[in-house]
Structure formats: C-alpha cells, structure tokens
Amino acid sequence: MPAKYEQQTSKSKEFHYRARKVLPAGVSYFIRFFEPYPFYVNWAQGSKLKDVDGNEYTDFWMGHYTHILGHSPQNVIAAVSEQIQHGTHYGVSHELEVMLAEKIVTMVPCADMVRFCNSGTESSMYAVRLARSFTGKNGIVKFEGGWHGGYDPLHKAVKPPFEMSASSGLVDEALKDTIIVPYNDLNGVIRKTDDHEIAAILIEPVLGAGGCIPANREFLKGLREFCDDRQILLIFDEIITGFRLAPGGGQEYYGVIPDIAIFGKILGGGFPIGAVTGKREIMERMDPMLFERPSFSFQGGTFTGNPTSLVAGLEVLKSLEDGQIIHDLNRRGERLRKDLQEVFSSSTIDVNVTNAGSLFCTHFTAEPVNDVHAVFRADRRRLLDYHLKLIEKGIFFLPTHSGALSTVHSEEELQHLLVESEKYVKSLKS
Ligand SMILES: Cc1ncc(COP(=O)(O)O)c(C=O)c1O
C-alpha cells in the first residue's frame, strides 16, 4: 500500500498495533485483514463508512453483502429501537418468528416451512444434517470454489490449490463424505458422483466468494433433473443471492426450485441470522412430534429466533417483496458492469467484469470467467493493487472481493468508481 494510505490512517495504525496483541491478525475474521493494516471503522450510514481518522469511504462491501438498503436504514432502526424496548432476547416462542416465517414462505418458492438460526454457517450445517436425515444417505456434493461457512464437511475446495487442506484441524473423518465437483459443468458432476450414495447437492446459484460467477441456467436445470433422477436433494445456498437476485432469491431468478434453501445476510436486516427453509415433508424431520429419535433431525440454539434480528429482517423483506427495488438494482448492476468493462476495454489491460444482478467482480484476465480456476488464474495481485488504490480514493471493496450495489449508492458514487478505475488503468499504461 503506498505511503498515502498510512498518512491518512495513523489512528487505524495505532488501533492495529493494539488489536494484534488481543485479536489474531488484529481482526475478527481473517478476510478483513489487508496489508499493511485495515482501517478501523466507527460509523456507518447509507452508502458510507467512516474510519477512526475521519476518512469517509463509499462502501461496496456492504457488511459482507448484507445491507441491500444501505447501512442503518431508517425503517430498520425504528423497528429495532421499538423492539428492544419490549425485550432483546426472549428465549421462548414469539410473534415475530411466525410473521417472518410467513413472509419468507410467501416470497421463496421452495419454502413451505422455516427454521431460524444465527449465521449462514449454522444454516449450512443444519441443512446438511437435515438432508442426511431425510435421505438416510451420507454423501454431500459441493462445488469447487463454493463457500458455505466454516462447517467442517463443507470446508473443502474453497480456493485452489484444492489438494491442500483449507485449515488445519479439519479431520479426514469429517470430510470423507464430501464430493467435490466442477461448477457450471453438468457432465463433470455426473462423472464425479457416479459411484457415490448422495444425500444432497449443495450449490450457490452465484459463486459468491468464488468470484461472483453466475450459474448457467441450463446447468442448474440439468442439475435439478439429475437430482430428481437419482433421488438426491438439491440445496441452494442463497446466503448471498437470497432476497437479492429476486424477492424469491436465485431460485426465482433462474426458475429452478431446490428442495432446501438456506439464507442469512440480507434476511437479518444487519443483525445476525441464518435460516433453513424447504419442502414440508423434509422440514418436518425437525418436528419431534412427528419424528422421534432416531429419525428426528436436531436444530436449535440459545439465540435462534432472536427478536432483534427478526424485526430487522421483517422490515427489509417488506421493502423488497414487491420486487421493484430488486429489479431496479439488477438493472443498475448490469449497467455498472458494462460501464466498468468499457473503462477497462479502453486500456491495454485485459479485464473481465462478471456480475449477477447487483453483485459484480473485476477479474484481471482475458479468458472467460466461468469457474474458480479462471478466477485464480487471473492476476490477483493486480486486483489487490486496484482495490487498495481505490481505498486511497475513498472507495471501499474488501480487497480482492466482489462488490454489491445497494439502493443508497448514488449515480455520483458510481461515476466516481468509474473515474477512479479509469485513472487506475491509465496509471498502468504510463
Ligand atoms: C454463500 C455463503 N454461504 C455461507 C456463508 C456463511 O455465512 P456466515 O458468514 O454468516 O456464517 C457465506 C458467508 O459469506 C456465504 O457467502
């Protein structure tokens, strides 16, 4: 990072020294670290983040793609402020659980029933368990580059090189029933799953952390047919795509309905949440009145159905359910992709900008980007450099990650991104 960043962020630097003593890498999640040190934030509103040195950034990371209505939207803040007067965490059944579950059921095609949990990781964990419980089989198919959170059986083949374990502490026993298959390649899926007993295929309709790669519609349709033929459950991880690509998520956008879908991020309106949804006959496995041990599938936890998250999520879904906002954001996302692509095309630098609705990612490569291998063959050092230079100009992408548009991004802010991107490519030429 050039010296300018360090001049602008002296208080963040001090914080980082303190942070490193008490937080590994000085952060709460390693992806939030970047060289020489991340800035530390103390304010977020609308499209903006402010750091402890008073620098302001237009935020395209948006809380891990959570804030589709921007940071701290008024309707959410009002509903949460009202709710906490009545209780922060009940730990017993309450109205909001029913209200939000009903809302999800009306919006999401595959959802006959819902169970809430606290994070995307938890929802993927419970979805895998539920699929195994329902089918009586163990095999779980996941895609190269797919990220479903840190649950052991799914913490595999996230980033190349895939032969290397994604983390120490993962034991073979946890991973032995996980089958890795290539994204956007139905023949590859069929080939690699031929001699396995499979409970479910788990897929992100858009590879999110894997580089913002949309699934090919025909591929998803083929996958649905393959699952039906082989009596395999199809699970959509809609933790990024849910309530973003369409009111009913990736399944509505692509017209392919899974058996189970998991949600997080946008659903919590800026507060922690996860949800498992699916067809009634599958979801009922979690009802101990209908399925006693050993066929019962456990899900639960202290903070499940936390009213603060639920009331925030309900407000956000009310804003999104008629589809207007999402439609408009998708249109703007597509236009931004084209504009960015044009900026880069006017230079000698090879760039491919991928997008799906309001999500977009820049890849410094000439080749089409259809899977995570292409993402990692691209020039990642240049992408890092580009994002770090944008930070100096007050535009924040979590370095090397995709961006997300929210309703609060103004046309001026998008223009600023285009102008600074153009300056960046020009600086490379000279
Ligand atoms: C597609 C997808 N699934 C699952 C997760 C895990 O969610 P969480 O970080 O809330 O545990 C993420 C998080 O980024 C994600 O992008």
Question: Could you walk me through the main structural features you see in this protein, from its secondary elements to its overall organization?
Answer:
By secondary structure, the chain is of the alpha/beta class. It has two domains: 165 residues, Aspartate Aminotransferase, domain 1, CATH 3.90.1150.10; 247 residues, Type I PLP-dependent aspartate aminotransferase-like (Major domain) (Aspartate Aminotransferase, domain 2), CATH 3.40.640.10. 41% of the residues lie in helices and 15% in strands. It contains 16 helices and 16 strands. The strands form four sheets. The protein has a seven-stranded mixed beta sheet with strand order 4-12-11-10-7-5-6, with helices on both faces. A four-stranded mixed beta sheet has the order 1-2-3-15. A three-stranded antiparallel beta sheet has the order 13-14-16, covered by helices on one side. α13 runs parallel beside α16. It is globular and about 65 Å long. The model has no long low-confidence stretch (mean pLDDT 97). Bound molecules: pyridoxal-5'-phosphate. The site of pyridoxal-5'-phosphate has 15 residues, from α6.
Write the layout of secondary structure elements.
Elements: H1 3-8, H2 10-22, E1 41-45, E2 48-51, E3 56-59, H3 62-65, H4 74-86, H5 95-107, E4 113-117, H6 120-135, E5 139-143, H7 172-175, E6 178-181, H8 186-193, E7 198-203, E8 206-207, E9 213-214, H9 217-230, E10 233-237, H10 249-254, E11 260-263, E12 274-278, H11 280-283, H12 307-320, H13 324-345, E13 352-356, E14 359-363, H14 372-377, H15 380-392, E15 395-396, E16 403-404, H16 411-429
Parallel strand pairs: 3-15, 5-6, 5-7, 7-10, 10-11
Antiparallel strand pairs: 1-2, 2-3, 4-12, 8-9, 11-12, 13-14, 14-16
Pyridoxal-5'-phosphate binds next to helix 6.
